[in-house]
Amino acid sequence: MKTYLGIDVGSISTNLVLIDGEDNVLFDIYIRTDGNPIRAVKQGLKMLADVFPRESEVAGVATTGSARYLTGVITGADLVKNEITTHAKASSFFVPDVRTVLEIGGQDSKIIVLENGVAVDFAMNTLCAAGCGAFLDAQASRLKIPIEEFGGIALTSKAPTNIAGRCTIFAESDMIHKQQMGHSIEDIINGLCYSLVRNYLSNVAKGKNIQSPVVFQGGVSENVGIRKAFEKELGKEIIIPKYNKVMGAFGAALLIRENPPQKSKFLGFETADKEIKCGSFQCKGCPNQCDVIEAKIDNEVVARWGDKCGKWSNLAIDKQ
Questions:
Q1: Are residues 108 and 214 in the same domain?
Q2: The domain containing residue 136 runs over which residues?
Q3: Buried b / exposed e across 157-194, counting CB within 10 Å, b at 16+?
Q4: 139 and 34: one domain?
Q5: How many CB atoms neighbour CB 99 within 10 A?
Q6: 229 and 114 fall within a common domain
Q7: Which phi and psi angles does 271 have, rounded to 5°?
Q8: Number of folded domains in the chain?
Q9: Are strands 2-9 and 79-80 parallel, antiparallel or unpaired?
Q10: ATPase BadF/BadG/BcrA/BcrD type domain spans which residues (predicted)?
């Protein structure tokens, strides 16, 4: 059986999705990146190797996410795609007539506008993590509440407190102030959900024509408080698709399954047991002084990138 692997490595989570030739998900894995994408990818490959079907082969690998180039090098990916393309692909699979995709991850958020399954407009917020998963995790930890219970507690609120949500520092300061004023935890949490949604709509989604069907995905889509806040602010039904937490990886797997290589460059699951290191050096060849990234597997250089002229990256290509 031929299978196809999608890998999405972001700042907070690393996701792997393995599908068969008919787009059925065989396995999906969601783990924390914990600031070390190489270790997270190796962990994911080990987990997948333990359950990988016998008499099967990986016929194609695609990577996406903020660490997509690095992941592509250390796994031998056949395709490297941006998050907009992979998330749009995955959402269209589950909701063929989807018009708007709301995606909130660990440290960034995005909106994608689609027509006939094709992304025609998008916007991203990568400058501030206000309203993203990392900020919600931090607040849940500060309040000593499991993040899994955050949204449920918000729904018990009767009068959400107004919280400043434009900046993570101001939002946290405002939450502490409201606690000291005597507001209940559930009202503060619910107020935070509404504040973050309004911040998303006024910044990331500013000027975008949000039309139904609206799909909400990414790790934060697990938060029912955020979901309800979106529905109330937009006055529209919010659809949470299956595999909502790993949609980037699923979309990547779909793309490589549609256009598979004649022979995959996948380095195999044994890559998880090899020593993988990345470093950088500054090229002195011209005034640009590019910072060149160098990847090694078992002390052998497998790729270099980051130079503008190709002096170093082409060496790696020639070697292959």
A1: yes
A2: 96-240
A3: beebbebbbeebeebbebbeebeeeebbbbbbbbbbbb
A4: no
A5: 18
A6: yes
A7: -55, -30
A8: 3
A9: unpaired
A10: 5-255
Q: Torsion over CA of 254, 257, 263 and 266, rounded to 10 degrees?
A: 30
Q: Which residue has tokens 């790696």? A: 316
Tokens linked to 172:
């946290």
Kindly tell me the number of DSSP H helices and DSSP E strands found in the chain: 10, 13
| Model pLDDT for residues 233-260, shown as the tens digit of each residue | 999 999 999 999 999 999 999 999 999 9
Do 151 and 209 have their domain in common?
yes
Let me know whether 66 and 113 are in one domain. no
Reported in sequence order, the residue ranges of the chain that DSSP labels E, i.e. its strands, are 2-9, 13-20, 25-32, 57-64, 79-80, 100-104, 109-115, 118-125, 214-217, 238-239, 276-282, 291-297, 300-305
Whole-number Å distance between alpha carbons of 236 and 223:
17
| Residue 130 · residue 171 · CB < 8 Å | yes
Sign of CA dihedral 145, 150, 155, 158: positive
Looking up tokens 């939450």 gives 175
22-79 tens-digit pLDDT = 999 999 999 998 889 999 999 999 999 999 988 899 999 999 998 898 999 899 999 9
Supply 129's token pair. Answer: 């993590």
Read off the amino acid at residue 263. K
Give the residue from 197, 259, 216 showing the smallest Cα distance to 94. Answer: 216
Same domain, 293 and 206: no
142, 140, 203, 143: which is closest to 167 by C-alpha? 203
Contacts of 33 by beta carbon, 8 Å cutoff, 6+ apart: 9, 10, 11, 12, 13, 14, 40, 67, 106
What is the C-alpha separation between 20 and 114, in angstroms, rounded? 26
Averaged pLDDT of the chain: 89
Quote the CA–CA distance of 176 and 174 in Å, as a whole number. Answer: 5
Query: Does any domain span residue 91?
Result: no
